[in-house]
């Protein structure tokens, strides 16, 4: 099985343990081989699987050796924005506050709330890179076997009204208990903090906002990461003006409308109001209850969960001034003296409308028709307005990085909201403010440039297709962001130079995801929008192959990163262009390295049924035979540790001197580091996909690994591209995915310049097909061969090695 190091700064957090490792009592002193931290907490809790992470630390599924049961371990880290060490007295105060809040959390006992079993603090490892984190704090809780509502929603689609009413009733009973009996406010109710047990019972998880708040004593409330998730949190909570029992009711209602509509919560908030009713028809009573729970002002909401339960049961004759026994609001910011019965109020309002305002209603209807006609003549700037997975600025596609404070991220939300309302001036103000605090966000940079392009009128529209994972806790979006940085870099330069005759570049971001069955549907949607002239993007060879038929004969696609060789097994039409040289170039460089090192015997570990991996394996084998090397073993790997260990055993038995990795990114993330660390004196080779930070941080010898990539930053004076990257992103440490995305966008821009004044899809295709077509790239010209693939020119493609835990260029690869 796999166990996890809980050191937040560990360079190699995953440690393999033999299957026979069962009796933890006999292994209480096992330590992480990378940082020396004990892998068993308090000699009883063994972290087995990381299941979440956030601004305060990590969450692990773990094993309690004493009670012989599964549990959840939450590791929390003190926060200090000025990065100065906490004094000993401050640490003592934090420790005392943590214990007080943890004890209160332990006293919460409800059948739908995971029980807190234990809490403790441990010293951080002595080699911790952040000295002020001298203590790490832990909560140990009951493990709930089930699925969070966000995952359930993604799998099944929107919930029916009866399902939502039933779930709402369950959760209101939980809130009634914590509010009335424990005087506790959750503060962060959302889809991902609700788990449905296998028996159907809903559990409300992640209690601990008060605990977390005690771990950031010097941080103002408006910058606190314990203030909840922005779009689910009510206004008073985000503003730090007080938190009430009704604040939880607001967040619960926001959760319910996501379930009812099946839409991302960002799509349901527009012009500072909830617009969820546009997407679903529900019973008027339920709709009014949810709208009242979502009221902007706390005093306009229900006072208690009990009042909502009563309203749901149809008993609407509430006494607005009565409060459940023991219930009280934890703030003096607002005066709760009058709360109206929204249901009876709505009935009176309906009668008044019928008697007095019907004529006015007819006038308004006429105005609405006029507005509709105006909209048809002047449609929204975004071609996929309110469509999930698409955004030109009106929705945030990449989830918030937990390392970014809520108060900072709120400006991105405000900018996106203003964009969706067509208030581009205001969007620019908020997005600039956000980027001033978080410079390295390419999505926000693109939205800022799009807002400027929209104001300039008649922009040149291009779709930017990247693989975005919409759940930050279950995957990384580093690949999508690396690609977007390349796109945004060119867009920023192009628009600052006033584009072409004042027409600026406008990028519509499209999330292709990683699911093959959705890629063609998304491609069909893009191809149907005539305003979009072309597409840049598609990360994998599999994804571009799946999407290609939708664009054939219609519009061009320039892929930055697809490298599978075009042949009978991998076919692409003439409308697909690619700026990364194919796998034959990478295979040639890798085998030439073997020749220089006098390495003969090779084993190939490959991923079956994946286009890039199959192509790389084939090309590598061809070049191995060409240079008279020996292929001694071929071994398939999907994602199992057992598969990897079996392949390593076979490679050693055949005396392999080299192991070639032909994996997708997914399998590389899982298997590459393990192979490198368990392969002893065997040299490891790979192309593109093992190029991850976790590999560079694995403490491997200099001559152990070589990876062929399309570009790597210079070792001497920075190039123009790197200098501009420092200015734009605050760092020149960009990688090959960004560089190739830059080259793809430069090729698209050059084609647009060549068809100046006649912007059609066909003209764009013809420009790219011209024999003299050439665009400036990061290190070499972008020129295409007859197939639409990039010509192999000097300066494209290098081998990198690891030195001092960083990838650097192997200068012997220049040839």
From TrEMBL:
First-level EC class: transferase
CDD domains: PBP1_ABC_transporter_LIVBP-like (cd06268), STKc_PknB_like (cd14014)
Residues annotated as binding ATP: 74
Classification via InterPro entries: Kinase-like_dom_sf (IPR011009), Leu-bd (IPR028081), Peripla_BP_I (IPR028082), Prot_kinase_dom (IPR000719), Protein_kinase_ATP_BS (IPR017441)
Record-linked Gene3D superfamilies: 3.40.50.2300, Transferase(Phosphotransferase) domain 1 (1.10.510.10)
EC number: 2.7.11.1
Keyword Cytoplasm: no
Pfam families the UniProt entry points to: Peripla_BP_6 (PF13458), Pkinase (PF00069)
Protein keywords: ATP-binding, Kinase, Membrane, Nucleotide-binding, Serine/threonine-protein kinase, Signal, Transferase, Transmembrane, Transmembrane helix
MF annotations from Gene Ontology: ATP binding; protein serine/threonine kinase activity
Residues in Protein kinase domain copies: 45-318
Catalytic activity entry: L-threonyl-[protein] + ATP = O-phospho-L-threonyl-[protein] + ADP + H(+); L-seryl-[protein] + ATP = O-phospho-L-seryl-[protein] + ADP + H(+)
Top-rank taxon, per record: Bacteria
Listed transmembrane segments: 356-377
Family: Belongs to the leucine-binding protein family.
PANTHER family (alphabetical): SERINE/THREONINE PROTEIN KINASE, SERINE_THREONINE KINASE LIKE DOMAIN CONTAINING 1
NCBIfam families linked to this entry: 4Cys_prefix_kin (NF045510)
Name this protein carries in UniProt: non-specific serine/threonine protein kinase
Organism: Hassallia byssoidea VB512170
